[in-house]
Specification:
Blueprint: H1 9-18, H2 25-33, H3 38-41, H4 47-74
């Protein structure tokens, strides 16, 4: 599946000028913005591991929010 994105001619020229001979436009954009190559990260984690990590990160974020709230309350 692919999507189209409208960009200005100026930006298209910029990306094209940075495109390497062996790259697609998508590969060039990923390189320029520092995005990961999907093939580099695909299959590294099982779905179960990814879900567990996601849950852990959400718990950590929630604890951080609570810690900041408690700290603010101490100084009010």
């Amino acid at each position: 599946m692919s999507k189209s994105v409208r960009i200005s001619e100026e930006f298209h020229e910029f990306v094209t000028s940075h495109k390497r001979e062996d790259e697609t436009m998508e590969e060039t954009l990923r390189r320029l913005i520092g995005g990961p190559d999907p093939e580099d990260v695909a299959g590294i984690l099982s779905s179960e591991t990814a879900d567990a990590m996601r849950d852990h990160l959400e718990d950590k974020r929630q604890r951080d929010v609570e810690d900041k709230r408690e700290l603010r309350e101490r100084f009010e």
